[in-house]
Design goal:
Blueprint (H helix, E strand, L loop, with lengths): L1 H33 L4 E7 L2 E6 L4 H10 L7 E9 L7 E9 L4 E9 L5 E2 L8 H12 L3 E2 L28 E6 L4 E6 L41
Parallel strand pairs: 2-5, 6-7
Antiparallel strand pairs: 1-2, 3-4, 4-5, 8-9
């Protein structure tokens, strides 16, 4: 009886997931027809609708998603960055939006390079202020039109961008408190490697005489019979 209930619940959950995917597919088709010149492509990934747009299309796309009566994505949940060093536009910016009236989410993705900026969306979502500052602090992506684009997490005078794939794990400087100077000082990082001698022989002693393992394709050799005296 329990197995039948579990099987029914799984089938019901799978039906709901399929229905959600169809709803996301219809919403993606509808948005693409409304603003076709801004949407490069859309897809449904893990029960979420993903829109890919260019940097110049970011502002009109977010305005449409927020103000249109059939979407109403009025909440900006987060802005995340991803670094792909092998790509020409190595940075991918991910905008996560939430529509409270329709109880659904959507993801808008755009791209940037080390020298190409992205327009700020602080005029559309006031909460994007600190989010864009965090992306700038971690990846070095510039947002044009931002009212106060400066670092928000790292220390004053920090060099580099910690979440880039080419940033060293140890950083460039060592920050410590100097008791003699009674203040925090930053010194060049020294990576000293002590000399170590490794022994590759096993410390465990073998027990028993053992027998050699024959190679593949070879028949094991028979031991010579001892003559009886």
């Amino acid at each position: 009886m329990f197995f039948n209930r579990s099987k029914f619940a799984f089938q019901k959950l799978r039906t709901f997931a399929t229905a959600d995917n169809l709803a996301h597919q219809k919403l993606g088709d509808y948005i693409s027809k409304c603003i076709p010149k801004y949407i490069q492509q859309f897809s449904v990934y893990k029960d979420e609708l993903v829109l890919n747009v260019g940097p110049s299309a970011l502002i009109p796309t977010l305005q449409f998603l927020k103000l249109h009566s059939a979407t109403q994505f009025t909440q900006l949940v987060d802005i995340a960055g991803v670094d792909y060093p092998s790509k020409q536009n190595r940075f991918e910016l991910v905008y996560c939006l939430l529509s409270i009236p329709y109880n659904t989410r959507i993801i808008v993705k755009t791209y940037a390079s080390e020298i190409s900026p992205v327009p700020s969306v602080t005029d559309i979502f006031k909460g994007a202020n600190w989010m864009e500052r965090e992306v700038y602090d971690m990846y070095g992506v510039f947002f044009t039109g931002h009212p106060d684009l400066r670092r928000i997490l790292t220390d004053y005078g920090f060099e580099g961008y910690p979440l880039r794939k080419d940033f060293p794990l140890t950083g460039y400087v060592e920050v410590r408190y100097d008791d003699s100077k009674k203040r925090v000082v930053a010194e060049p990082l020294e990576l000293a490697q002590s000399f170590r001698l490794f022994e590759y022989q096993s410390p465990w002693e073998q027990t028993g005489s053992g027998k050699p393992v024959p190679k593949l394709g070879e028949k094991p050799k028979e031991e010579p019979k001892q003559e009886k005296k």
